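[09:14] KT: can someone run the structure on this one? pasting the chain below
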Amino acid sequence: MRAVAFTVVGLMVPTTVLPAAAQEFDPAALDLPALVECRADVPTYNGLAFWLTGEPEAAGELGWRKVDSGNPFLSQYELEKPLTVFGTETKALVFTSSGPMAVLEGVTATDLARKLGIEPMISTEQKFLGEKVILEKTETSEGVTLATRVSLNVSTVESHPGKVLAGCSYKIEVK
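[09:31] RB: done, structure tokens below
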């Protein structure tokens, strides 16, 4: 029998994972720079994603304020305290369909990608998109196959002119 899967902040996960991940998340233990810089593991990100989407006051508890991103594919938060990632400080964070990305000013996408060892897939004056795979694995247990992929991403988007989005993508798919 195939496991049922659903999307939470872009993660495709079996429904049996939701209660445990949401219940185990401790907001006091959140290491946001590690999550954005791909230094955390997938269960840690899952815990945040499930908790953030399942608890009505979660963002406020973290000192975050949801703001309009101007992009239907990004959920944006203004942070109470600055976040330092990739050597740059920001108070803006977006969640893509698969993970957190810092909204950075004062850096260029090409320079940041070069610093992080990311090869561009698209690099034009209008658009930058680069990715470096950090982890890619497939595991099968009890007839269910989970494909895990973690990647570090740098991009630009029209909704955030003059800014660079940099962060981590945590994907788990039931195959």
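[09:33] KT: thanks! Residues 47 and 124 are 36 Å apart (CA to CA).
[09:34] RB: yep, looked fine to me
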